[in-house]
Amino acid sequence: MNAVAAMALRRLALSAVVLSLVSAIVFVGTEILPGDALDSTIPADELIYYTAEDLSRMRAELGLDKPPVERFWSVFTGLATFDFGVTIVTREPVWDGIRHPLLNSLLMAGVAVVLTPLVAIGLGVLAALKPGGRLDAAISGATLFGYSMPDFVVGNVFIIVFALQLGLAPAVLMVAESAPAGEMLSVAALPVAALAVSGVAYQFRLLRAGMIEAMDSEFVERARLAGLSERRLVLTHALPGALIPMLNGSAQFVAGVVSGAVVIEAVFRYPGIGLELVRAVAQREVPTVQAIAFLAAFGVILSNLLADLAILALDPRVRRRADG
Amino acid sequence: MRHEAPRTRAHVETAGLTVTYRDGLGGERAAVRAVDLALARGATLGVVGESGSGKSTLARCLLGHLRPGARVSGGHVRVGDVAPFDLDSRALRAFRGARAAMVPQNPLSSLTPHMTVGAQLGELLRRHARLRGRAARARALELMAETDLPDPASLHDRYPHELSGGQRQRIVIAAALAARPELIVLDEPTTALDKTVESHVLDLVARLQAELSATLVYVSHDLNVVARMCSRIMVMRDGAVVEEGDAAALLRRPRTGYAEALIAAMPRLAPERAPSPATPAGPPVVSARGLRFTHRSPAGLFGRGAVGRPALDGVDFDLARGETLGVVGESGSGKSTLAALVCGALTGGAGSLRLDGRPLAGLARSRPADQRRRIQMIFQDPLASLNPSQTVVDIVARPARLYFGATAAQARAEAARLLAALDVPAETMNRGPRHLSGGQQQRVAIARALAARPDVLLCDEITSALDATVQAQAIALLRRIQSEHGLAILFISHDLALVASIAHRLLVLEGGVARDHGPTRETLLTPGSAYTARLIAAFRRNATAMPSSAVLADENRTKKMLSSGH
């Protein structure tokens, strides 16, 4: 277990580098965009009321006149201690602004991330029982279709089918950002399903490939010729090994959820971190953008670490290698 | 209740058994053709043939198993009072393992990697003997002890990759015998094992078969092994039985030319027929002094990885033009490490390595192109060593482009000439390597090595993936090339008999240390170490059933030698 701890430690050290790079890239991105936080708070037709002196005085008050390196440093040092600072214009703590959207998104993404591998495993095992059979063909076809669909198409199709045609869910969510988790969950059903489609499809394909390879292996043939039941062959001999490539896919899915959430939240008007990010970018609220990007990168790194730990638990060979 | 079969009925029987596979083109190809088989209870039958002869398909049929795409298109199988292909899936599962057991070919890949070996024995005991918990564990330990596994209690909770090849094969055998079957089918169970380990496993199988008075069907391409294990032999080719009969009689007087060719192709340990080195030996092309290498585990968070026992520990050798140095030893003896150091695939070795007196850098990429060209390597798995996306002729043309700056047309013409000289059919030249047979693939690999016009050829187990007859052809080819081009060959194999048939001098490695080094004939007749004597004895033991006067004479010599304490 010592080696596992060492691996986790090594990963965390690497994460610090990745997080610094992410912050730098986000900062450069917001810097390249024309205009700054001040420009975006003053409507274009009101700009004529301000003189150049007014503008530069206001810039100085907001700290926008400092060189980029200095501004980056002040944001970055805050991030390193999980202190996200205050917004540029309203001087409110960034954390207060993103807390509720973040929790809402975590709720939606969390449900999707937990559900996705479970659905993928169920479908993958069913399909691998008889590769090339009718059930396999149906599931494989459906998932290939789902996988090739962009998230915004899936979201809009869901709205058309489930909200407009069947009337099972509201088309546009009318819910307060700070609504309690239970209420949020009840309206999140459709966004969660839309978010999970591509993940289920991708992870199903990884699992099915792994299952078919395992069911075709010499160790499963030996076990079969020793008289074990198909059920045992599938669940005990084939599945654990086949989960390994799928878990890597699950970790990738978490990264996909972060970008998927931006699109899905926009489609459903779900009050999550994605909508907040879009708003913050539009308003050039660099500290807010930085905070969201930082948290997203942190989430992706964490999920990859968890997937690696799960693989260690599943594959004794990797476990020993880590020990050696 | 089981009915006792009438005495006159055979215990295991197939009649007119025909199995066909769907081929990719919508047609069918017969893998087993009208095979009749009748075995009394307790009989031992060896089924021999080359790859693709249908012997493994036949073996699986005895347990009512067909690989996907196959079907029984005629005839039937019966074991005792059971026709496995007529059973429903539930009854078939009860029959398999309990009454008929299979020991598959490759112990390395036949155990589920993420389950401990104890768990894999336990599930069978639960299935067939209704044992659970402590009782199952106790029985599993008994089974492991029965197969001569050392310290069953500690091995029980280990994973397959933590066991040696021989130990894993014992586990597979223990699993097969867990429910005391009346029919044991073994499909090449020792092909992946070293000769001395093979010898022990064969003893074990023979003992357990006698104890259970089980009927034994032993599938192998190795006539020596079959002759040792079985009283009857059946020779198969293209799915049909070519010849069947009493083992000793068949080996002594084969009735068909095919069986005769199979017997002739088996390498036999015959020291008096070993080639002798040229005298005086020419100046060495390759010369190694004090070669050492230690594998390092990957560097951890805190410094370099742990350093283990050296894989190669102070090995010296000289290799002259026109000479073959045979390197033998079991897995882990450092044979392949030696080849990897000479061809520059490993970094961090110690000792000196010279080519024509000039020092060779450790890694191939730090050697001048001319030195790289002069040392060429041929690998065990020809398919894995040939670029699958190139045609055969392009693969062989590459060295001429790389080392001699030939134009594409020149290089292809040269490649075609080489391939033709090595009897690779002209119609295969524009195909990918996958479409060639194993023997042809290895010829292509040899042609690619020769295209660089090397002075030194490194051959690492180049025939272990080939059938005996194809192997014999490959060895003859290598001898011809050597006499034509005056090549120096480093020939590595675990098969002492094979090495002895081609090598002028022998280097015997054990655990990275040279145990013996000298002319082949002298080394075999008067081995300088107990290890070499043991290796020779293991080969002799498997070959005793082969009725060759030369073998018998060798046998007596070895006995004398061993008893006189060499």
Write down the domain tally of chain B.
3
Rg of chain B, please?
A: 25 Å
Tell me the series of helices and strands of chain A, N- to C-terminal.
Answer: HHHHHHHHHHHHH
Structural class of the secondary elements of chain B? alpha/beta
User: Which residue ranges of chain B are poorly predicted, with pLDDT under 50 across at least 5 consecutive positions?
Assistant: 1-6, 298-306, 547-566
Anisotropy-based shape of chain A:
globular
Radius of gyration of CA atoms of chain A, rounded to a whole number: 24 Å
Oligomer state of the chains in this structure: heterodimer
In CATH, the architecture of the largest domain in chain B is 3-Layer(aba) Sandwich
CATH class of the domain at 98-282 in chain A: Mainly Alpha
Tell me the fraction of residues in β-strands of chain B, as a range.
15-25%
Number of H/I helices of chain B: 21
Q: Describe the biggest sheet of chain B? A: 6 strands, mixed
Q: Could you report the average pLDDT of chain A, rounded to the nearest whole number?
A: 82
Summarize this entry quickly:
Chain A: It comes from Rubrimonas cliftonensis. Chain A is mostly helical.
Structure description:
The complex is a heterodimer of chains A (324) and B (566). Chain A has a domain at 98-282: MetI-like (MetI-like fold), CATH 1.10.3720. Chain A has 13 helices and no strands. Chain A has helices at 2-32, 37-41, 52-62, 68-80, 94-129, 134-148, 151-165, 181-215, 218-225, 230-268, 273-282, 286-314, 316-323. The longest helix of chain A is centred in the C-terminal third of the chain and has 39 residues, at 230-268. Chain B has 566 residues and is α/β, with parallel strands linked by helices. Chain B has three domains: 12-265, Rossmann fold, CATH 3.40.50.300; 283-294 and 308-525, P-loop containing nucleotide triphosphate hydrolases (Rossmann fold, 3-Layer(aba) Sandwich); 526-566, no CATH class. Chain B has 21 helices and 19 strands. Chain B has helices at residues 55-61, 89-95, 117-129, 133-146, 152-155, 165-176, 195-212, 223-229, 247-252, 257-265, 335-343, 369-374, 382-385, 392-404, 408-421, 438-451, 468-485, 496-502, 520-525, 530-543, 549-563; strands at residues 12-22, 28-39, 44-48, 70-79, 100-103, 183-187, 215-220, 232-237, 240-246, 284-293, 312-320, 324-328, 350-355, 358-359, 375-378, 456-460, 488-493, 505-510, 513-519. Chain B has a six-stranded mixed sheet, sandwiched between helices. The longest helix of chain B has 18 residues, at 195-212. Chain B is globular and about 70 Å long. Residues 1-6, 298-306 and 547-566 of chain B have low confidence and may be disordered. At the A-B interface, helix 1, helix 9, helix 10 and helix 13 of A face helix 2, helix 3 and helix 6 of B.
